Amino acid sequence: MNVFRLSGDVSHLLAILILLMKIWKTRSCAGISGKSQILFALVYTTRYLDLFTSFISPYNTAMKVFFIASSYATIYLIYLKFKATYDRNHDTFRMEFLVLPVLVLAFVVNHDFTPLEILWTFSIYLESVAILPQLFMVSKTGQAETITSHYLFALGMYRALYIVNWVYRYYFEGFYDLIAIIAGVVQTVLYCDFFYLYVTKVLKGKQLTLPA
Amino acid sequence: DGRNGLKDEL
């Protein structure tokens, strides 16, 4: 475990905690895309099936269980507990436009044609685009609450830090995974526009608003 | 196995 990988994991953990706290403290999930959260739950469920087949470390197991549990908890908060505050009219991205192409791609481009490996590949591809309904929602409403911006920043930084971790591991351990790298780069690139707005607006104390 | 030792990642 190198410092980039650990920072990436911490950033990911922080993103989830920020989101859960925002919803819990404000008793509202306004501005949050339930569809992105459904896609993330699908990502963790399909990726961490190896919990049943291989043990890596207590850290690894604990993080996997937390990611799965927190993703379903978030869905529960959005669609059940605080559903009156869910902004469904602005959450109109079609999930099947992401899930179906990604499923086909996972069957075609993978390391090994076995059920677990195809599901892992599916989850890597799906994760790279799972934030699109959320970004679409922000662009549709033209703004995001500051706390939502912090959530998106931490979530975007997580994969960016993983990329640095992969460069490090390639140089010092000789390991690399093209599927993870390409998907990770796609994922990070999708956040670039948001990163720019975050640095130029949110960090200067302004709310994130998009030009009309 | 194509995933060169990165199975420990999240």
TrEMBL record, chain A:
UniProt KW keywords: Endoplasmic reticulum, ER-Golgi transport, Membrane, Protein transport, Receptor, Transmembrane, Transmembrane helix, Transport
Q: Where is the protein localized?
A: Endoplasmic reticulum membrane
Q: Which InterPro entries match?
A: ER_ret_rcpt
Taxonomic lineage is:
Eukaryota, Metazoa, Ecdysozoa, Scalidophora, Priapulida
Question: What is an example of a Pfam family matching this protein?
Answer: ER_lumen_recept
Return the protein name: ER lumen protein-retaining receptor
Q: Which residues cross the membrane?
A: 62-80, 92-113, 119-139, 151-172, 178-199
Family according to the record: Belongs to the ERD2 family.
Cell wall biogenesis/degradation found in the keyword field: no
Which PANTHER family does the protein's record reference?
Answer: ER LUMEN PROTEIN RETAINING RECEPTOR
Top-rank lineage group of the source organism: Eukaryota
